[in-house]
Amino acid sequence: MLLASNSSSILGSGLRSPEEADIASYKENRTAQIRLVSSHNEVYEPCDDSFALVDALLADRTNLLEHCPTMCMEIGCGSGYVITSLALILGRERGGVNYIATDINPNAVKVTRETLDAHGVDAELILTDIASGLENRLAGLVDVMVVNPPYVPTPEDEVGAEGIISSWAGGENGRRVIDRILPVADHLLSEKGWLYMVTLTANNPSEICLQMRKKGYASKIIIQRSTEEESLHIIKFWRDFDTTVDEVTDQSLIGFLGSLLAQIPLFSLWRGSNSNDNC
Ligand SMILES: C[S@@+](CC[C@H](N)C(=O)[O-])C[C@H]1O[C@@H](n2cnc3c(N)ncnc32)[C@H](O)[C@@H]1O
């Protein structure tokens, strides 16, 4: 979560596996690079975590296109890099997709607006805490939610502090904001809704997946990437109607964690064709 140095364009990530290099090359060739047209010293500049999240969306592009979302949402949009990328991945020309993004930082909302405008993407931007005020309007409507939350373990009093600190300050185990986002996601996601979220090893991603499993969600690690500073996991959650809460026992947890780990090398299977004519 180091802040990236100032650059005129936002490219991919640092160290890449062959699959990731492939995806990055795909990204660079198939989707417009997101230009950093605006910045602010109090707004999180896209970094390894942002790149990993967008790489996960690219890796899952075929599924996203077939998913035909009509409502996409980002919580904590920062510079707008992720929501703009998502719109470009889904195709600007495709009508009927609504984008909405929130951030608690007013400067982030301004920078996101400029990033979206520069790429011809229309989205509703809301200055709010997570999705406060949107609970009724968006309940059960969000088909794709993307979140790169403040996940760094920090002293509790830094959580929610004004300005750039709120970009990373996650309190104990980095979970303070994440644990508030999960029930909101559950409330806003549609029946077919998908959540893509960045987590760090210190956040205990397995426990997050278990928590979501208790709410009826299956999960999959789409990208696991270690940088010098951190080990990031991009996890996708979706409702699994075959799982009931009663089935989530300690025994199933053991099997579940095993299967979660076994999924890591499979992320290349999530890449696919460029067809977007299915909706
Ligand atoms: C790690 S940054 C990610 C920014 C951007 N999504 C990206 O990936 O580059 C986290 C963002 O969440 C915002 N944020 C932190 N706490 C929030 C809250 N309670 N509600 C809404 N946004 C919040 C921060 O202002 C920051 O823009």
Topology:
Elements: E1 9-10, H1 18-30, E2 34-35, H2 48-59, H3 61-67, E3 71-75, H4 81-90, E4 98-103, H5 106-118, E5 124-127, H6 135-138, E6 142-147, H7 165-168, H8 176-188, E7 189-200, H9 205-214, E8 217-226, E9 231-239, H10 250-262
Parallel strand pairs: 3-4, 3-6, 4-5, 6-7
Antiparallel strand pairs: 1-2, 7-9, 8-9
Helix pairs in contact: 2-4
Bound molecules: S-adenosylmethionine.
Helix content: 25-40%
**Strands ordered across the widest β-sheet:** 5-4-3-6-7-9-8
Number of strands: 9
Shape: globular
Going by CATH, the architecture would be: 3-Layer(aba) Sandwich
CATH homology group: Vaccinia Virus protein VP39
Residue ranges: pLDDT <50 for 5 or more in a row? 2-31, 262-277
Using the CA coordinates, give the radius of gyration. 17 Å
Number of helices: 10
Structural class: alpha/beta
Describe the structure.
The chain is of the alpha/beta class and 279 residues long. The chain has a single domain (10-269), classed as Vaccinia Virus protein VP39 (Rossmann fold), CATH 3.40.50.150. It has 10 helices and 9 strands. It has helices at 18-30, 48-59, 61-67, 81-90, 106-118, 135-138, 165-168, 176-188, 205-214, 250-262, and strands at 9-10, 34-35, 71-75, 98-103, 124-127, 142-147, 189-200, 217-226, 231-239. The protein starts with 8 loop residues before the first strand and ends in a 17-residue tail after the last helix. The model is unreliable at 2-31 and 262-277 (pLDDT under 50). The site of S-adenosylmethionine has 24 residues, from helix 2, helix 4, strand 4 and helix 7.
